[in-house]
Amino acid sequence: MAELRPSEKMAAIGIVQEGDPILREVAQRFDLPAEAEDARRVVAMLHSAILGVAAPQLGICRATAVVRTPDGEYITLLNPQIISESAETDE
């Protein structure tokens, strides 16, 4: 049996792949603190799928991401903004 590509492994666990329309949507920002409970729910879902993942990648159109540092700690980002990007790409 051929080994699955990383994108196929990610799709198998429910990670939305390139080309899915939700990845083109503008993620809904949280109205904090009014939506704190919803923010906690979304963060819990991100932690369960963690390496480094944003809510839209799980089919949740909310502006949230969780990233694991090289030290194994988690950083939760609510309403993050991209301020720069690399020309390098990966699957």
Task: Name the descriptors.
91 residues; alpha+beta; Peptide Deformylase; 3-stranded antiparallel sheet; 2 helices
What can you tell me about this protein's structure?
It is a single chain. The chain is an alpha+beta fold and 91 residues long. It has a single domain, classed as Alpha-Beta Complex (Peptide Deformylase). Helices cover 22% and strands 14% of the residues. A three-stranded antiparallel sheet has the order 1-2-3, with helices on one face. The longest helix has 13 residues. It is globular and about 50 Å long. It starts with 5 loop residues before the first helix and ends in a 13-residue tail after the last strand. The mean pLDDT is 86.
Uncertain stretches of 5 or more adjacent residues:
none
Query: Number of domains in the coordinates?
Result: 1
The overall pLDDT, averaged over residues, is: 86
CATH superfamily: Peptide deformylase
Number of E-state strands: 3
Which band does the percent of strand residues land in? 5-15%
By DSSP (H or I, 4+ residues per run), the number of helices equals 2
Return the structural class. Answer: alpha+beta
CATH class: Alpha Beta
Q: Termini separation (Å)?
A: 22 Å
Estimate percent helicity. 10-25%
Spatial shape: globular
* Radius of gyration, taken over Cα atoms and rounded to an integer in Å: 14 Å
Give the strand order, joined by hyphens, for the main sheet. Answer: 1-2-3
- CATH architecture identity: Alpha-Beta Complex
Give me the strand/helix succession. Answer: HHEEE
Which fold name corresponds to the CATH topology? Peptide Deformylase
The major pleated sheet works out as: 3 strands, antiparallel
